[in-house]
Amino acid sequence: MEWETVIGLEVHAQLLTQSKIFCGCSTAFGAAPNTHTCPVCLGMPGVLPVLNRTVVEYAMKMALATHCRIASRCRFARKNYFYPDLPKNYQISQYEEPLATGGWLDITTENGTRRIGITRIHMEEDAGKLVHDEAQPVSYVDFNRTGVPLIEIVSEPDIRTPEEAAAYLRTLRDILRYLEICDGNMEEGSFRCDANISLRPAGTTGFGVKTELKNMNSFRHVQRALEFEVRRQRALLDKGEAVVQETRLWDAGRGVTISMRGKEEAHDYRYFPDPDLVPLTIDEAWIEEVRRSLPELPDAKRERFVAQYGLPAYDAAVLTASKDVADYFEAVTADFPQPKTVSNWIMSELLRELKRDERDIDQCPVPPAHLAELLDLVDKNVISGKIAKAVFKEMYESGAAPSRIVEDKGLRQVTDEGVLMVIIDQVLQENPKEVDAYRQGKEKLMGFFIGQVMQKTRGKANPQLVNRLLKEKLSSPSA
C-alpha cells in the first residue's frame, strides 16, 4: 500500500523581552543557576502574576506577520502536570481562548511553493531546566528559565515531507528574527520544535495514529528524525502492526527515535481558566499600532531585491534569509552600486568564511565599507579578481582595509603596456613550439600564454590587457 505522511509542528519561541512574562525577573541567558528568580516565578504561596505588556505586543507581531486573526478577547489557563522543573505544578498557558488563530505562511522547497496553515499562536510561560549529573544519579533544577515568555505556534497538519518540515521551520525562524522578537537559537533552546507525525493510506483524508517527536535541536535533526519515523511507521503498517500513540525522543548519535512515554491528551492536563489573571481585551487601535511597527518581512524584501536590484530570485532568497545579511548587502551596495557583483561576493566568499568559522554576520570582521572598497579596486583595475580573493582572506583574518593590504604587499596590477610587452616577448621566445601551434590554429593555447605571463608577474598583470597584447603580438607576422 502507498502511504502518505502527515506532519504537524508545534514550535515554542522564547521572546526577547528583558523581564519574564508574569514578574520582573531578568530573562538573560547564561546566569548562575537560580539567580534570576523571585517568589512569583517560583510559585510561592500568596503571590500574584502580572502580565508583561511587551509579551503581548511581541506575540501580536508574530500573529500579524503570519496572517493570523487576533482575538478581541483571550485568556490564560492553567495546564496542570507534575515535573521537577515546574515549581507550581502547573504552567500558565492559553487553551480554549488563544491570542490568535487561522494564519498561514508559504514555504519553498525544490518541489515548489506550498502554503502551510497555522492553527493558533498563544502565549505561555516556560518551565525550568533539569541539569543531570554525569558522575552520579542526581539531577539538579535551574529555575532561571521558569517564567520566561514563550509563544507557541501550532501548524495545521499540512506538511507532507520531512523536507517541507525543515523549510517551514526555517521560514518561521526567519520571520521571528526579522521581527527581532526571538533569536531563533535552537541549541540554547530559545527556538524549540515538537513534531507530530502519522501515516495514512494515500488518497484518504482521515488521520492515522500519530507519534510526537522531541529533543531535536537543529533543522537537520528535525528532518532526520522525521525521515526515520516515516520509515519506522511504514514498516509497522506494511506488516499489519499498529502504531502506538506515544512521545518519542530523537537520539542523534544513533539516528533513531526512542519511546519516552505515552502521549498525553488535552484532558490529561485538566485545563481551567487561571483565576489570578483577568481576560485580556485587545482592541483594533492596539492591533493597528502593532501593525504599523512591523518591519519589512522576508517575502517582501525578497520581492524588492529582485525588483530594485535586478537580482535573480535565488540570490534574493539567500541574501534575505537573514535580516543581518540583507542589511549587509544593502550597505555594501550603497557604496558600490553593482548589486550582482556584491551578491556574488557575499554568497561565495563571505558566507563561506562565516560558515567555516560558525559565525553570524554580526560577528563578521569585514565591515561593508571594506568589501565595497575591495570591489571598487577590482572595478578600477587596481587589482585583479584573483588577487582580490587573496586580499579578502587577509581582510577577514586581520580586519585591515583592502587598500592598506594592497599597498603594503605591493599587489597593484601591472598595467604599463611597455612593461608587459617585455614580459610577453620573453614568454614567446621561451615557447617557440607553442607559438607555431597557436598560429596554425590551436587558439586554446592563448590560456597557456596568459598563464605564463601571470606567473612571471606573480598574478599582478591585468588579464584583459595581457590578452589583448598577446593577440596583437601573435597576429603580427614580424613577431
Automatic annotation (TrEMBL):
SUPFAM superfamilies referenced in this protein's UniProt entry, alphabetically: GatB/YqeY motif, Glutamine synthetase/guanido kinase
GO biological process: glutaminyl-tRNAGln biosynthesis via transamidation; translation
Name of this protein: Aspartyl/glutamyl-tRNA(Asn/Gln) amidotransferase subunit B
NCBIfam families: gatB, PRK05477.1-2, PRK05477.1-4, PRK05477.1-5
Catalytic activity from the UniProt record: L-aspartyl-tRNA(Asn) + L-glutamine + ATP + H2O = L-asparaginyl-tRNA(Asn) + L-glutamate + ADP + phosphate + 2 H(+); L-glutamyl-tRNA(Gln) + L-glutamine + ATP + H2O = L-glutaminyl-tRNA(Gln) + L-glutamate + ADP + phosphate + H(+)
Assembly: Heterotrimer of A, B and C subunits.
HAMAP family: GatB
Biological role: Allows the formation of correctly charged Asn-tRNA(Asn) or Gln-tRNA(Gln) through the transamidation of misacylated Asp-tRNA(Asn) or Glu-tRNA(Gln) in organisms which lack either or both of asparaginyl-tRNA or glutaminyl-tRNA synthetases. The reaction takes place in the presence of glutamine and ATP through an activated phospho-Asp-tRNA(Asn) or phospho-Glu-tRNA(Gln).
Residues in Asn/Gln amidotransferase domain copies: 327-474
Enzyme class: ligase
Molecular function terms, GO-annotated: asparaginyl-tRNA synthase (glutamine-hydrolyzing) activity; ATP binding; glutaminyl-tRNA synthase (glutamine-hydrolyzing) activity; transferase activity
E.C. code: 6.3.5.-
Transmembrane annotation, as ranges: none
Family per similarity comment: Belongs to the GatB/GatE family. GatB subfamily.
This protein's record includes keyword ATP-binding: yes
UniProt KW keywords: ATP-binding, Ligase, Nucleotide-binding, Protein biosynthesis, Transferase
InterPro entries: Asn/Gln-tRNA_amidoTrfase_suB/E, Asn/Gln-tRNA_Trfase_suB/E_cat, Asn/Gln_amidotransferase, Asn/Gln_tRNA_amidoTrase-B-like, GatB, GatB_C_1, GatB_Yqey_C_2, Gln-tRNA_amidoTrfase_suB_CS
